[in-house]
Design brief:
By secondary structure, this protein is α/β, with parallel strands linked by helices. Helix content is 32%, strand content 21%. It has a 5-stranded parallel beta sheet, with helices on both faces. The protein has a 5-stranded mixed beta sheet with strand order 6-7-12-10-11. Strands 8-9 form a two-stranded antiparallel ribbon. The longest helix has 11 residues. The protein is elongated and about 60 Å long. The termini are far apart. The model has no long low-confidence stretch (mean pLDDT 93). GO terms for molecular function: diphthine synthase activity.
């Protein structure tokens, strides 16, 4: 059996279904390339099953398939950060199991898209979720503009490299946007929302001008929201949550 499970950002968010299945699992793999795994979560899980293996992108893309196919009679669990179906990479393993008559199960957990609800912004007013990469690219900016012109909020996920403990910080992400913003859709007075350590110890939400945010040091992990027109309910709730 193959189980694909999310994990959340703290111990309280770990699904009971995952905890129960880990106890007697034969092979347990924990991804760490899509997000940083909190040490408290890792310790907690290792106390339940000491054979959990941390895996990177190469392992998922080039090795996991054969392990699943060669161990059909065993319980294999792949644990990922947030919602396990947030990234299409994991769709493949469900299709693989279906084609090869391998029983499978999906255990959901909260993703960053659920957690940004703490800002008070209506989730149905969000457009396409956009990743801002380390490398130079223009595609992400085009998608930001499409959202903004359609009066949709934009959630920006900032690139990260957990293996080397490197984050793309909010300043660099904003700088990338401003460098591509030739039509000056966003000026230094435009206000952004920056979320720091959502659902972790030290969580903070900032709502300030680009000018001020560029002078702040904000702890990762981070995400940025480019708001469209906020209604009064959104504004009032956001004012309750900002640091």
């Amino acid at each position: 059996m193959f189980i694909l499970s999310g994990i959340g950002n703290n111990i309280d968010e770990i699904p009971i279904g995952l905890i129960n299945n880990i106890k007697d699992a034969d092979l347990v793999f924990l991804e760490y390339y899509t997000n940083f795994v909190d040490n408290s979560i890792l310790k907690y899980l290792l106390n339940i099953n000491s054979n959990i293996k941390l895996i990177d992108r190469d392992f998922v893309e080039y090795k996991l398939e054969n392990i699943i196919l060669n161990n059909k009679d065993k319980k294999i669990i792949l644990i990922v950060s947030g919602n396990p179906l947030f990234a299409t990479t994991h769709f493949y393993f469900i299709e693989l199991c279906k084609k090869n008559n391998i029983n499978f199960k999906i255990i959901n957990s909260a993703s960053v898209f659920d957690e940004v609800g703490k800002t008070g912004l209506f989730l149905y007013k969000f457009g396409r979720i956009i990743s801002v990469p380390f490398h130079e690219s223009t595609d992400f900016y085009d998608n930001i503009i499409n959202n903004y012109r359609n009066n949709l909020h934009t959630l920006l996920l900032l690139d990260l490299d957990p293996k080397n403990n490197i984050y793309l910080d909010h300043k660099e992400a904003i700088r990338k946007i401003m460098n591509l913003d030739k039509n000056r859709v966003f000026n230094e007075d435009f206000k952004l929302i920056v979320c720091s350590k959502l659902n972790r110890d030290g969580e903070k939400i900032y709502y300030d001008s680009i000018r001020n945010l560029m002078n702040m040091n904000i702890e990762p992990p981070l995400c940025i929201i480019i708001p469209s027109n906020l209604n009064k309910i959104e504004e009032d709730f956001l004012s309750c949550m900002i640091s």
